[in-house]
Amino acid sequence: MATLSFSLSLGSVAATATTKPRYLLNQKSHFRNAIRCSSSGSDFQSAETFKELRNVAFGVLAVWAVNTAASPVIAASQRLPPLSTEPNRCERAFIGNTIGQANGVYDKPLDLRFCDYTNDKANLKGKSLAAALMSNAKFDGADMSEVVMSKAYAVGASFKGTDFSNAVLDRVDFAKADLQGANFRNTVLSGSTFEGAQLNDVNFEDTIIGYIDIQKLCVNKTINDESRANLGCRP
What's the order of all strands across the beta sheet hosting 3-5? Predict the structure, then answer.
């Protein structure tokens, strides 16, 4: 139960409203029953005065409800879920996700955090890892060609020498990831971010990436001259 109390001065009139936020926008009858008014004088005899007070109450409560409802959504988007306790969670990468690959929608959360796939050449190729949680995982030397990693969260992960050729890596967060020597040949990187990532000797040949994304990527000082040339970075 959420409660909002306020007072409006009109002579000696006071109004108090109590209601549940989820009913604020579509059940006006709840407001009508929830408003209680009291007066110590004769000013409150006018029906028009009551209507004005009621309208103001509805407006204040509606704004409060919208702001209150929005806050948890914003907070949730900034947090990661607790580490999965599923015994075989790392092996689930060998199966991948099966629903809504392009939008990062999955049938079950794919939690690969802290998993080690170093030099895996057979189990990850072509898999769908949409919206996978990959932070602090190791994929060094792995064959991840043709994978679909839409909206994956790979902050702080290690992909040294990883083969991402012909993969779809749109909207992936590679912040602070180690991508030294990774191969992005003919890879879709639209909307992906690399803030603070290590990009030494990365192959960007024929990479599919937007102009704005290129501008952001070229700011990274770890990209060597050949990679900058492949991206079309300005000198």
Answer: 3-5, 13-18, 36-39
